[in-house]
Amino acid sequence: MPTLPDRAARLRRLVRSVSDRLRWLPPTVARLTIGLVFLQTGWGKVTNIQKVVGFFTELGIPAPELQARLAASAELVCGSLILIGLFTRVATLPLIVTMTVAILTARRGDIHELTDLLGMEEYLFIVALLWLGAYGAGPLSLDALFARRLGSGERPVARTAEA
Hints:
- Helix content is about 75%, strand content about 0%.
- The protein has helices at about 5-20, 25-45, 50-60, 65-85, 90-105, 115-120, 120-135, 140-150.
């Protein structure tokens, strides 16, 4: 009859096995979600650029015409790149800057304590973008396809030693 530690070890092996088989899922879902959100918001800004310029002017952002076009272009282009998983790590950088500026300008008045910041969608986008920037687009992406074709391969995330 198996002992409790034997059952725990067996359960741990099962969980690890399932986890290893689903390793592709988190980066794929994160990439598709973030990419689609920014593609849509970028398209909305590009097609209504004068509204965005007006909003940036109200916020007191310097050179609102230029900044509006930069933000719209960054969201549209980088969102598209992230969606298809191409140059993902690089594409996250302009979006992190855009979200940081959004927090510091448009959302600053909404922050009264740390939990206000942590619950903002802009902050959560930054967290997801940091994750994609650090770990890449995952195996179901053009980045991974090109890496395999070039023989360079993405470096897998190192596993930590478990007790």
